[in-house]
Amino acid sequence: MEQYFNASYLKQILNKNKKIVYPILGFLILIAAALFFYFYYIPKQQDKAASEMALAELNFMQGNYTLAYEGDSKNKGFKQLKNKYFFNKTNNLVFYYSGICQMNMGKFSEAIEDLKKFSTSNDELQTLSYSLLGDCYAETGKMNEAVSYYEKASENSKNIELAPTLLYKAATAYHHNNNAKKALELIDKLKINYPNSTYSQKADLIKASIE
Fold first, then answer.
1. Of 5, 76, 123, 133, whose CA is between 20 and 30 Å from 144?
2. Residues 6+ apart with CB under 8 A from 202
3. At residue 127, does pLDDT exceed 60?
4. Which residues pair with 71 in a beta bridge?
5. What's the half-sphere exposure (Cβ side, CA atoms, 13 Å) at 175?
């Protein structure tokens, strides 16, 4: 009977060409592992993270920031979740929620650490994150950093309601930082680009105090 598979012959071929075959096999194993990680492991982790985060999100939406962050004996909060899951979008969003919770708890330095770890391709959400970082730095008295993030937020913003708010915040921060020139530049920019905004009128008060 004809033998279709000869293990001894295959072994001879592998030994003879091991310098070529083994690296190729190793590479194929790495590719298979990467595909498994990307298409199976990450989605599973994503679903699990989203499920565990649901109650923390609910508490967050209801304004229960301490409970949303700390969790309780039965449910995890953002504090426990933010370092549990890696390489997924949910983990990234956890840092955003966590930062806002800590802001509302008066923990501005900790909020800065979390918000700086958040990034997104969503312009509006990224703009809000920059603005919140500006607020946190302002609360800690670091006005140079506050101004930097307010300006980043205003440059990133495409929201005609949010942009004048950010320019006003940046101008106010410059004013408190005794940089009248930059404050006036932003006030002028605010009044030219958003003349009908309520912040345009508020900016007049800053301008009057400078001039």
1. 123
2. 168
3. yes
4. 76
5. 20
Mark 89-116 as b/e (b = at least 16 C-beta within 10 Å).
Answer: ebbbbbbbbbbbbbbbeebbebbbebbe
Distance CA 127, CA 123 (A): 6
Nearest CA among 100, 160, 168 for reference residue 124? 160
CATH number attached to the domain at 53-210: 1.25.40.10
Q: Quote the distance between the C-alpha of residue 168 and its chain's center.
A: 24
**Tokens 């109650």 belong to which residue?**
55
Ranges of each domain in the chain: 53-210
CA pair distance 145, 136, nearest whole angstrom:
9
Tokens of 144: 């140079």
List the end-to-end C-alpha distance of the chain, in Å, as a whole number.
Answer: 104
Which of 36, 43, 124, 31 lies closest to 87 in space, CA to CA?
43
With beta carbons less than 8 A apart as the criterion, state whether 174 and 190 touch: no
Question: Model confidence over 73-116: pLDDT tens digits?
Answer: 888 889 988 876 554 555 588 899 999 999 999 999 999 999 99
pTM of the predicted structure, to 2 decimals: 0.72
Rounded Cα gap, residues 33 and 182, in angstroms: 54
